Amino acid sequence: MDKIKIMHIVQSSGGVARYLSMYLKYSDKNRFEHILICSLDYKIEKMEYLAEHVEYLSMGRQISIINDAKGIWAIRKFIKKYMPDVIYMHSSKAGALGRLADIGFKNIVLYNPHGWAFNMNNISVIKKKVYALIEKVLAYKTNMIIAISAWEKESAIKYKICCSDKIHIIPSGVDVCLYDEERGRYDLNRSKLKIPLNAYIIGMVGRISYGKGPDLFIKAAALIKEKIPNAFFVIVGDGEERASVENLLSEMRLKDDFLITGWVSNPIEYIQLFDQAMLLTRWEGFGLVLTEYMLAEKPIITTRVGAVPDLMQQGKNGIMIDVGDIEGIVEASFKLYTDNQYRQTLVSNGRSTVRNLYDIRCTVKEHERLLMSARY
């Protein structure tokens, strides 16, 4: 039997890149051949060894009629070149350009928004309606939509994107197997990062963008420092708001107690050093990094937003705080610092959650089962 050719189209990096690299790693290479069409951001992700073919094109996050038209034309050329059986688009921008480029071709179309654009809470009501309308129109050119959480599916139904039967819930996952193999070989330490040996490390992993709440993390850090004098803070990631974040650190006189790593290929190696892990996101389609925190056995403080409550159980595997509740973040952090038994309970339950429910191998098998059922 010939292999099924899957063309992945992806623009957004960060968590989506980590998810896709794990997906490609565990895919059944005897049944599936993968072609990766990705933005220039992916040149730093080293994806070439995971797919049979990798192509790069300019594909930005912002809407640009000229650049997007060029992107559609380039994707269309790649479709003609490879003639895939399946086109699988990851994130909103890739989903829009990919489906427009695919008009006129006969293949199975999958789309995973990895967080609906119309759920962002820093955009106007009009923009939300426009994004929802675009998704609704493009859903006609889609065979199956993958929702990474029940909340994502409910959001799509609320905005009447498509019928419920077209949406399939397949949560994201983490590479449990790789972590178990490599955890003893991690050699990153405080000395290498120039972090004081007696520091109590509180960290977050994520794109430095408004949505991920780095400003909330910094504002909370200033107050946490008053309660935990040896606290040291780490942001693992980079992004468009880095300059403003560094300015805020200077204003709050926290630069000596902060480390911003920039993009790293293996965030969990940094997570290993955390004493507490935070995700203070303003919206979230899933929260992949929360599963990485659980896998690394770190106590978690996160915001109660989007799909996070699908993953977290308040007081059992983490602490959820309302978006913008700086005092709540500080109180939760101090409780984890002072209450060892409570901290260990969260860690133990988190470990069980990720290992039982969010192993990437299960995610891949579910995708492949869905693809086989759609084709035959």
From TrEMBL:
Native species: Bacteroides ovatus
Short name of one Pfam family: Glyco_transf_4
Domain Glycosyl transferase family: 189-352
Gene3D superfamilies tied to this protein: Glycogen Phosphorylase B
Span of domain Glycosyltransferase subfamily 4-like N-terminal: 14-176
Any GO MF annotation of the entry: glycosyltransferase activity
Taxonomy, superkingdom: Bacteria
InterPro entries: Glyco_trans_1 (IPR001296), Glyco_trans_4-like_N (IPR028098)
Protein name, entry field: Glycosyltransferase family 1 protein
Keyword Nucleus: no
Keywords, alphabetical: Transferase
